From TrEMBL:
It is found in: Cell inner membrane; Cell membrane. It comes from Inhella gelatinilytica. Pathway: Cell wall biogenesis; peptidoglycan biosynthesis. Peptidoglycan polymerase that is essential for cell division. The gene is ftsW. Keywords: Cell cycle, Cell division, Cell inner membrane, Cell membrane, Cell shape, Cell wall biogenesis/degradation, Glycosyltransferase, Membrane, Peptidoglycan synthesis, Transferase, Transmembrane, Transmembrane helix. This is Probable peptidoglycan glycosyltransferase FtsW. InterPro entries: FtsW, FtsW/RodA. Its EC number is 2.4.99.28. It holds the Pfam family FTSW_RODA_SPOVE.
């Protein structure tokens, strides 16, 4: 197999003593093998655990003063810490179970997961069922946590896009047969997300779907056309929405008196937090902006608190961790494709786009490089359903890696 999207399997490197690689068509199958040892990719697991541990500490630091606000007066100072810890505990248990499920099973149930995600996106819009916060209706109250269907939709679209491209591989040169149905599905999902409204989630989902189409080898002209249509759709949404237009203007000139106390309030205080952090930060717990100046400090703007308390050094470590995580997951996907496991490979690369893309948007928003969007920082920010779906998605990637390793030593996936 020559690979998908224009790459070939890498030839084995010297120094891999004691490791025998299968040979196919005279070429050793390696393709960026993540680690030499069999089993799980332990380094990937440790990076994820370290990010979650940092997130747990920073969620506590960012939320400890919230009970001083009348809105949260009935909460204990450890309320968000305990809720976040509970979410991590539940997510770890479910993720551990997900690693025991073969990738073929996920491929079989992909249509049902996609259907379930669409149904939940409809249910959350029903008055009295979906929970509304600050004008947005995005959550379903489930007792132990508020579940956000858009997080399930990200996982479902990664599976669905991979399955779709696997089935349509022979039709990659025919636009309507290869791309049309995917665009229709994406359009329906986009309308439901924009009704919440949750444009940030729609941007991530669109990036996952289009990224998997590109990596699956869709014709370059078709890909450019799809990209142009999506960009045009986002431009139209901004043009015909006064709220979104104001956000763009506020982003372009956040220090203007018209915006500094309104649409750009979060952005200006986020920038102040980074400025106070300088090189090495004010120290853990030393943030001033989290004291009711910076809204959503424990969710969307957690990185600003990290910047204020840990400085450029701490922010740099977080950015490098997400870069490494994204690259590692994508390499696992490339390895699967080199082993003729196209669905598994495209799914893993879709998850890489998800984690890397969402982290990029959140970091850009916090730093003022992108307009403000309601997106959390994966694995770090407070949010039960986000942590749950992030860990399930990464657990399935670990399963892909496990099956890759089994095949590479001559076994069966």
């Amino acid at each position: 197999m020559n690979g998908i999207g224009g790459w070939n399997p890498f030839r084995p490197k010297s120094g891999d003593e004691g490791f025998t690689l299968p040979v196919r068509d005279g070429i050793h199958i390696r393709d960026s093998r993540p680690t030499r040892a069999y089993g799980y990719d332990l380094l990937l697991v440790w990076v994820v655990v370290c990010l979650m541990a940092l997130g747990l500490v920073m969620v506590y630091s960012a939320s400890i003063a919230l009970p001083d606000n009348p809105r949260f007066a009935r909460y204990a100072s450890t309320h968000f810490l305990s809720r976040h810890l509970l979410a991590i505990g539940i997510a770890l248990c479910v993720a551990l179970a997900a690693t025991q499920v073969p990738v073929k099973f996920w491929e079989r149930i992909t249509p049902w997961l996609m259907l379930g995600a669409l149904v939940l996106l409809v249910i959350v819009l029903i008055p009295g069922v979906g929970k509304g916060v600050n004008g947005a209706r995005r959550w379903l109250p489930l007792g132990v946590m508020n579940f956000q269907p858009s997080e399930l939709a990200k996982f479902a679209i990664a599976l669905y896009a991979a399955s779709y491209m696997t089935r349509k591989m022979d039709l990659r040169e025919q636009f309507w047969k290869s791309v049309g149905p995917m665009l229709a599905t994406l359009g329906v999902m986009g309308l439901l997300l924009l009704a919440e409204p949750d444009m940030g989630a729609f941007m991530v989902i669109a990036a996952i779907a289009i990224g998997v189409l590109f990596l699956g080898g869709v014709n370059g002209r078709m890909f450019s056309l799809v990209l142009l249509v999506l960009v045009g759709a986002f431009v139209l949404m901004i043009t015909f929405s006064e709220f979104r237009r104001e956000r763009i203007f506020a982003y372009l000139n956040p220090w203007d008196e018209k915006y500094a106390a309104g649409k750009a309030y979060q952005l200006t205080h986020s920038l102040i937090a980074f400025g106070r952090g300088e090189w090495f930060g004010q120290g853990l717990g030393g943030s001033v902006e989290k004291l009711h100046y910076l809204p959503e400090a424990h969710t969307d703007f957690l990185l600003a608190v990290i910047g204020e308390e840990w400085g450029l050094l701490g922010v740099g470590v977080v950015i490098l961790a997400f870069f490494w995580l994204t690259r590692r997951v994508i390499l696992i996907g490339r390895q699967a494709i080199a082993l003729d496991r196209v669905f598994a490979g495209l799914y893993a690369q879709g998850v890489g786009i998800w984690m890397g893309g969402q982290a990029f948007i959140n970091i850009g928003v916090n730093l003022g490089a992108l307009p403000t969007k309601g997106l959390t920082l994966p694995l770090l920010s407070f949010g039960g359903s986000a942590i749950l779906m992030n860990l399930i998605a990464l657990a399935v990637v670990l399963r892909v890696d496990l099956e890759n390793r089994e095949l590479m030593r001559g076994g069966r996936a």
